[in-house]
Amino acid sequence: MVEKTMKRWVDGLIEKSSPVCCIVCEQPRHEGISVLDEFICDDCERSIVRTPVEDKKYSFFVTQLSRIWLNWQGSAPGT
To answer: pLDDT digits over 8-27, tens only?
Structure first.
C-alpha cells in the first residue's frame, strides 16, 4: 500500500509530494498520470493527446512511451 504522503489521487490524476521524473520529458514533476508504474507529467500528457500523427513530435512521443512497455517487460516475473 502506498502512503498518503507519497501519492494522492485527484480526479484520476496523481499528485506526488516530491517530484518524480517524467518518462517522456525526463524532468522532475509533481502532477501527472501513472501508466504501468511509470509517470507521465501533466504537460506531456496534454501534448501527447493533442499531437497529430503528422507532427514531428509524434515519433518522439512513440519512442519515449515505448520505454514504458520495455520497462514493464523487464520487470515482469520470469524475465
So the answer is: 544 445 566 788 999 999 99
pLDDT digits (tens, 9 = 90+) for 29-47: 989 998 888 899 999 999 9
β-bridge pairing 28-35 and 38-41: antiparallel
Q: Is 61 exposed, middle or buried (0-12, 13-18, 19+ CB in 10 A)?
A: middle
Contact partners, residue 43, CB within 8 Å, separation at least 6? 25, 29
Cell 500500500 -> residue: 1
Separation of CA 5 from chain center: 19
